[in-house]
Task: inverse folding
């Protein structure tokens, strides 16, 4: 069995309760989004100085973190990588828009989202009666978004 199948199956063992699953459909993308935004908010003037416009606007700790995550995804499954790449591009666009247009700093918005989403995650696992998978292995922090993506792929008939 492929590593991705083993990881998704193991992740799924602590995500059987329908309420917990529904919470994950909301909170996992929000956590992923907020982490990108929090990393994006770390000063990265060096990158902006090194890269010309408009590329320099998008080279920051958030996009570097995404490149690392996407490298992990491509090592597991090329189709899931492309799904996560598309999802990541949407999140980058939203973070960029917020960073340019919001009244509050991006990091404040993302910190609030991060805290609320994690409260939701732990509440879902309390309902489930099982600990979050990442307590066993930190790589499950990246498997959560892929687990949701695999449901989308299955619904669309895309093999991952």
Result:
């Amino acid at each position: 069995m492929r590593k991705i199948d083993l990881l998704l199956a193991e992740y799924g063992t602590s995500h059987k309760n329908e309420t917990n699953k529904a919470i994950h459909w909301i909170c996992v993308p929000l956590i992923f989004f907020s982490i990108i935004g929090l990393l994006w908010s770390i000063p990265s003037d060096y990158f902006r100085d090194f890269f010309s416009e408009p590329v320099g606007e998008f080279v920051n700790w958030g996009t570097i973190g995404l490149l690392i995550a996407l490298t992990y995804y491509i090592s597991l499954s090329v189709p899931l990588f492309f799904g996560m790449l598309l999802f990541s591009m949407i999140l980058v666009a939203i973070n960029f828009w917020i960073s340019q247009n919001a009244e509050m700093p991006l990091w404040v918005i993302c910190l609030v989202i991060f805290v609320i989403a994690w409260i939701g995650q732990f509440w879902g696992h309390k309902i489930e009666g099982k600990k979050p998978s990442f307590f066993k292995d930190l790589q499950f922090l990246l498997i959560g978004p892929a687990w949701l993506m695999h449901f989308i792929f299955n619904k669309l008939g895309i093999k991952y």
